[in-house]
Each structure stands twice: as C-alpha cells, then as structure tokens.
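Case study 2.
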Amino acid sequence: MKSNTHQWFTSLLVNSLLVSIVLLMLFACKKDKPIEKEAEVEKVEVISGADISAYPEISATNPVFYDLDGKQKDFLEILKENGVNTIRLKLWVNPASSHASFAEVKAFSQTLKSKGFNIWLTLHYSDTWADPGHQAVPEQWGDMDFHALSDSVYNYTARVVKQIQPHFIQVGNEINSGFLHPHGHISGNLQQFKDLISTAIAAVREHAENTDIILHYAGISGAENFYSKLSMQDYDIIGLSYYPIWHGKSLDELQSTMQKLSQQHNKRILIAETAYPFTLGWADWTNNIVGLEEQLILPDFPATATGQKAFIESIKHISTKAMTKGMGFCYWGAELVAWKGSESTEGSPWENQALFDFDNKTLPVLEAFRPGA
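Prediction:
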C-alpha cells in the first residue's frame, strides 16, 4: 500500500510539473505575441494633409512609385517622409463596389494609424459622391420618414466613430445646399438640415470625444452666409474647398474670407480640399478636369512642377501663418495617377494634378508639405 501511494504521489508530481511547463510555454508565447492594439497617434495641431481615398483601389494594380531622388519606395512612406501628417478618406454608406465602403475605410485607417498618420474622415451620407449639386439619400434610407432618417444618421455616425476613432471627421461633404436631399435641403428644409447636422454631431460627441468635427463648404462665395446659418452648431473647425477652376483666382479673397469666418465664429479654419496641375498634358485617354490655361492663375502659377509647388506654398501660408486660427490644408487627389493604363477612357481625370508625375515619380510640390517649408 505504501509503495502504491509513493507511485501515485510521484506520478502526481510529474503531471503537475508537465502542466506547469505547458502553462509557462503558453505564457511565454503570449508575451512574444501580444494582442494587437490599434496604434495611438497624437493629434496634430497643423494639418499637412492628403486625400488618397482611391489608394486601396490603385494599390491593387501594384503600381511602383519613386521618391524625389528617383528611388523606388513605398507610396505611404514617400508621403510620410515629406511631411504629410494627415490622411483624408471619403466614406460612402453602401457603395456599388467595396471601394469607399466602411470595411475598406476601417481597414485602411488601421494601416495608416500604424504608420503614424492622423485620420480625417469625410462622411458623404450617400452611396456615391456628395457635393453641392449631389446629395442623394442612401438607397436603404430612401423610403424613411424624417424621424427614421434622423435615427439612421445617428446610428451610422456612431458606428463609424466608435470603430474607427478618427482624429477629424466631416459631417457631410461640401454641404453648400445641405445634405440628404430633399429632407436636409437648405432651401425649403433649413430646420431639418440643422436638426440632421445636430444629430450627427451628437453621435460624434457621445462616442468619440477626442474627434474634432469639421463642417465643410465648397468655395468662398456664400461661405459667410452659410456658416451664419450654423452658428449655434457644436462643431470645431471650418473647412473650405478651394479650386481656382471653380472658386475664383484671387488668393487675397480666399485669405480675407478665411480670416473673416474664423473671427466671426471663433473657430479654427482650414482648406479641406485643393489641388493644382503640374502640366496641361495627360497620361491616359480620359478627359482631365483641368486642361486649359484659362483655368489657371497666371502668370503666378503656370502648369509646371514649379508652378504647382508655388501654388501649394501659397495655400499653406494662407491656411497657417496668415491665420491666427489656421489649421493647414489637405491636397485632394494626391494619388490619382493614370493607374488604369495609358489608353483608358475611364481612368483618372486628375493625373495632371496628382503629387506624382506620369512616371509615378514624386513631384517637388511634396516638399511644401514639410514642417517649416
């Protein structure tokens, strides 16, 4: 009996030792492979931004990019090393493809945060492009009454900010005429427009307290009247689009309007979208949006690499040093090279305004994004 007890005790010790070894190995593995945590990136005070919303689609074609020295380099690394600190991404509710979808934007945002970029989301509240002339309600919200639509705006906005936690967010994109037409059209439904804006803002405040809210207007004409209508809204930043082709060729008027708006509403202010061509040529068979000298600001900013850089240097100065509450700028279409091929008729209408030339080499304009430039 004593021998059996001894054998049992010895067996128990051996088994306990084996269990301990296994537990130690598992613990060691966990230490070697910690649970992945989303990168925490400190919010910037001055934005040198680039909208590269189409990059997930473009990257699937495996393009090769080159830095200023002509060396092959990762696209995002080129932006980062040249001072781009914030990436702006559009988000559509239920797009026809996966591009600009919640799943794509969430995954891309995580990648961008891991590389140290701030995230700036622009919610279009549509299944496709939203701008002053297009503010279509998402199809799945199409038959809703105003109360149900408002609930959907709140729930959708809350879901986005909870899961992505952006540093900056636009409630609507270029909402000159309102959004979610006809419910939120400024002309005829001004109070409903304000109510929908308030609902979206509340969702951000309640679920992402560290996210700054931008209200975005396209252009400078009419901007003072627009923001006066929203003077009681709880937002942080005034955002303006400025393209010479659509919004006039006076940088002095741009500066004076921005200064007035910032002072009148005691808000920080930035240029949410801008761009300029480095050539009037083309790299595919898709008609470009800017292709005529009459669309330029001449003689100050010709359609050359140096002209493009000079334009952005001026935009940067206006949106930072010339403003007491200036927050910087964002370049739209930075990535829109002719990625569909030189003979595509459905390619990029913007390749002559990208931040890379027709050989995908970094243009001098990117130097203007650097701190102190």
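The two ends are 88 Å apart (CA to CA).
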